[in-house]
Write a structure and sequence with these properties.
The complex is a heterodimer of chains A (443) and B (388).
Chain A: H1 3-44, H2 50-60, H3 65-81, H4 83-91, H5 99-107, H6 110-118, E1 122-126, H7 136-145, E2 148-152, H8 160-173, E3 177-181, E4 194-198, H9 201-213, E5 223-226, E6 230-234, H10 238-243, H11 245-253, E7 263-268, H12 276-295, H13 310-314, H14 325-340, E8 345-348, E9 351-356, E10 369-374, H15 377-387, E11 391-396, E12 414-416, H16 434-438
Parallel strand pairs in A: 1-2, 1-4, 2-3, 4-5, 6-7, 6-11, 7-10, 9-10, 11-12
Antiparallel strand pairs in A: 8-9
Helix pairs in contact in A: 1-3, 1-4, 1-6, 1-7, 1-8, 11-12
Chain B: E1 14-15, H1 17-26, H2 28-35, H3 49-63, H4 65-73, E2 92-93, H5 96-99, E3 108-109, E4 112-113, E5 128-131, E6 142-145, H6 148-163, E7 168-172, H7 184-194, E8 202-203, H8 212-220, E9 224-229, H9 231-243, E10 254-258, H10 271-282, E11 289-293, E12 302-304, E13 310-311, E14 316-321, E15 336-342, E16 351-360, E17 366-371
Helix pairs in contact in B: 1-2, 3-4, 9-10
The chains are: A alpha/beta (443), B alpha/beta (388).
Chain lengths: 443, 388
């Protein structure tokens, strides 16, 4: 083929891609509107099964009822805001592209992109269950992308996703929602094109091995692994802690610190000793609130679902689990250790904030122990590099994100502390926009 | 939150004159062993294990500020000598060897420094100091050994308890001690080599295959040989032999000591897989493989004898405890955190809580099953459920 014929062919191909891409955008947009509407109906319709799922989750899982209501409210408020349509809009093919994305597109063959645009892929989602409904974002992304969904539902959160999936099927999503199960052995063999995995690095290999041995997947199936386990907050001053203590405590203590968006490390030019009193007061407020709620038996707040505006969510109480004897003993030992090694710490209830030297900050693993690092922004950048894939997000306290120096390597968005537990539905776990990942043809 | 510092290390640490008298009178054996060059206290045969443990507890409570603060915060005091016969004193997490100076300190007794009586506590003494492996960017454990003869005695007695009085030739597939004087393992290997009266012990080149002719000659001459090395080092050696097409077939008189180092930057495998690979690679019997369990923080070692179970010498007590309540000792068969009472650690801390997951059998032998993963994990760690 001579040069002009090749150019013509390429142009034809590009036109085809453009046409297909425009169609995809249109269809994805329609899917977003529909999915948004159907999901909101699941929240609002008394016959949707949501109430049964809530009751089953309250009685049959480890989640605290208020955590469940908070999570449901947070998701609903984002649906009402129009997050799904916005997500697709962000990914639309006509969006101005960056040099990097243009280069990526150039490296793909036109035929490949046409195939990708035409084909519907089979996606296997392996959901985590550390927070209520934590797997919903993956379900949404697969459906918006136009792919087929199969899910391994977490046994820790077994009621919500099946309820939503059953509900959506009634509204015409049967073709895309293929199957879900709690048991790995029951996952059907389905020639999967992609696996979306969320979990710990240590569990990843064993899950993969199990699925390959059971011949559910082959060695070549690509995986998207999300393994981050905690987030960092940068606290520039004492004033910021005092003024944003509610948001700060929410980021630390909501969901018992279990979410990967929960803050496990705080970096601040102010030492922990200097902030002892405001931090203790803020933590005590949370602990005492829980005590009062428990005493008045008002911990369960079904009305919270109606509070789907962000102001109400911001003021939603942070429930804490009652401490058992074993946890109390464990805490006593941790405190004794801190005393022994002369480590500054703040302790309220079964929560600990410990100050660690910048040279040796371990990866935070315990969900009720937060590490305080007395250091500046340069050190924050180094710490981000140090934690690598274990780190989920970086938040700032204060008014201006641009005050925080960006880490060089990772494409972290510096987020406001108040978004820690209420991220938009299009947030990027482990820095990956799942919708874009599932639709690599989108620039 | 109360004050963190019950004892300020920046101020002189002192005890009353009564206390030294108390040590002399209540613990004459311990005092004598520390004040004079006699049999190390942990090898003393006139006291039983609990009596020695109780004396060491009081001694370390008084002279080791880190341990004292830990115990005090948990409701223990120097007067708890008798309590030690009913329950274990608090086990200090070995992490403390990274975070603080976990050794006994010279202390004022009235107007006199205690080092006047116990010379190893002198601040100008030049003790051994071991560091755990790692790079300069890593936080490393620091174990100051104020009286090196105690470590030597422990190495020798641990070895003899497991391998008897026979002479062993030591071949170490490790870096040399002289280049790594901070390694407690290499110090131990160096001592074992020193005690070999044949003087055939040596460090092997890490860049070459095993000198099989020489090894076979030693065996023919009736010697017993112990090959020392880290797990990943042995795997490298096997690969080297395979690459160079020099098949290994280890004579029965040769044993292989695996000293840990299962997980490196380039490979991680289960213990069972490692052992299969070593048996296959060395073409030897499983009984020829021995595992050593030791750590920088501990002056004594445990060795496997038959199968995967480790046995420690009689001055060491291993317990498996509840990770959330380390004062609760588990029954045999239950998995938990490994706790160690090593009476050889006289000048540092004898009561340690490791970060290792383990299990004990009814005879008190134990297995190390890996690192303990906390249950209250952050992130999506609940994913992998046992659902078949």
């Amino acid at each position: 083929m001579d040069k002009s014929a090749r150019l013509k062919s390429h142009q034809n191909g590009s036109n085809e891609v453009h046409e297909l891409g425009t169609n995809w955008s249109k269809q994805a947009n329609e899917r977003a509107f529909q999915l948004q509407e159907h999901l909101i109906k699941w929240f609002d319709d008394e016959q949707s099964g949501i109430q049964e799922a809530i009751q089953q989750s309250i009685s049959g899982t480890d989640f605290i009822s208020e955590d469940i209501y908070f999570q449901l409210s947070a998701i609903k408020s984002r649906l009402v805001t129009g997050d799904l349509v916005h997500w697709v809009d962000q990914c639309t093919i006509d969006r101005p592209s960056t040099d990097e994305s243009r280069h990526m597109l150039d490296t793909q063959s036109t035929d490949n992109r046409v195939t990708q645009l035409r084909e519907r892929s089979n996606i296997l989602c392996i959901h985590a269950g550390n927070l209520p409904l934590v797997g919903l974002q993956d379900v949404i992304a697969v459906l918006l992308a136009g792919h087929c969904y199969t899910g391994k539902i977490s046994q820790k959160d077994p009621y919500f996703l099946p309820s939503i999936l059953s509900w959506l099927i009634q509204f015409g999503w049967r073709e895309q929602i293929q199957y879900w199960t709690q048991n790995t052995a029951d996952i059907p063999v389905n020639n999967y094109d992609e696996v979306l995995f969320a979990g710990s690095e240590s569990s990843l290999n064993s899950v993969r091995k199990t699925l390959i041995e059971a011949r559910i997947l082959d060695e070549e199936t690509p995986w998207l692994n999300r393994i981050a386990s905690f987030s960092i907050a940068y606290c520039p001053s004492k004033k910021a802690v005092i003024e944003q203590s509610t948001e700060f405590m929410d980021a630390l203590m909501r969901h018992g610190g279990k979410g990967c968006r929960s803050v496990g490390v705080v970096v601040s030019p102010v030492g922990l000793n200097e902030l002892r009193i405001p931090l203790e007061n803020a933590m005590k407020d949370v602990v005492e609130q829980t005590g009062t709620l428990r005493q008045n038996n008002t911990l369960k707040q079904p009305d919270a679902l109606k509070q789907n505006n962000s102001a109400n969510l911001r003021n939603a109480k942070i429930p804490l689990k009652e401490i058992n004897r074993s946890e109390l003993t464990s805490l006593t030992y941790k405190k004794a250790y801190n005393i022994a090694v002369d480590r500054v710490f703040v302790s309220v209830g079964d929560w600990l904030i410990e100050e660690h030297p910048i040279e040796y900050v371990p990866e935070p693993s315990n969900n009720r122990v937060v590490y305080w690092v007395h250091a500046n922004q340069e050190n924050l950048v180094n710490l981000v590099e140090h934690f690598g894939s274990a780190l989920q997000s970086i938040y700032y306290l204060g008014t201006n994100a641009s005050d925080v120096k960006r880490p060089y390597k990772h494409s972290f968005d510096i987020e406001s502390i108040d978004s820690a537990q209420r991220p938009p539905l299009y947030w990027k776990p482990d820095g990956t926009d799942i919708l874009r990942y599932l639709c690599p043809f989108i620039i | 939150m109360g004050t963190n510092n019950r004892l300020n290390m920046n101020e002189p640490f002192s005890i009353s004159s009564q206390t030294i008298e108390h040590i002399k009178q209540r613990m004459p054996e311990l005092y004598a062993s520390l004040a004079e060059p006699v049999t190390p206290f942990f090898l003393n045969n006139t006291l039983n294990f609990e009596e020695k443990l109780a004396q060491i507890f009081v001694f370390q409570y008084i002279l080791n500020p880190v341990y004292q603060k830990y115990c005090t915060a948990l409701g223990w005091s120097a007067g708890d000598y008798s309590r030690c016969f009913d329950e274990l004193p608090p086990l200090l997490p070995v992490q403390a060897f990274k975070d603080a100076a976990v050794w006994t300190h010279d202390t004022l007794v009235g107007d006199t420094e205690i080092s006047t009586y116990l010379t190893h506590l002198k601040t100008d003494a030049q003790p051994l100091e071991f560091l755990s492996s790692g790079t300069s960017a890593m936080q490393r454990s620091r174990h100051r050994v104020l009286n090196p003869t105690f470590y030597d005695a422990s190495i020798r007695a641990s070895w003899q308890a497991r391998f008897g009085e026979d002479n062993w030739i030591i071949w170490a597939y490790t870096p040399g001690y002289s280049e790594n004087p901070q390694s407690s393992l290499l110090y131990m290997i160096d001592r074992l080599m020193e005690w070999d009266h044949t003087q055939e012990s040596c460090y092997l080149s890490l860049e070459e295959c095993l000198p099989l002719k020489q090894l076979n000659k030693l065996v023919e001459d009736g010697y017993r040989v112990m090959l020392f090395g880290a797990a990943f080092g042995w795997l490298d050696l096997i690969e080297r032999h395979e690459r160079e097409n020099k098949p290994l077939s280890l004579p029965r008189e040769v044993s292989i000591m695996e000293t840990g180092g299962m997980k490196t930057f380039r490979r991680s495998m289960s213990r069972a897989d490692l052992f299969d690979r070593l048996v296959q690679g060395f073409n030897c019997a499983p009984e020829q493989l021995i595992t050593e369990y030791g750590m920088t923080e501990c002056l004594s070692q445990a060795y496997t004898s038959k199968g995967p179970w480790l046995e420690s010498p009689n001055w060491v007590k291993i317990v498996v405890v509840d990770p959330d309540q380390p004062n609760k000792v588990f029954e045999s068969g239950q998995e938990g955190l490994i706790g160690i009472v090593d009476l050889a650690n006289i000048y540092s801390c004898s009561f340690m809580l490791t970060g290792d997951r383990g299990v004990q059998d009814e005879e008190g032998r134990f297995q190390v099953l890996g690192r303990w993963e906390p249950t209250s994990l952050r992130g999506c760690n609940f994913l992998m459920e046992q659902d078949g």
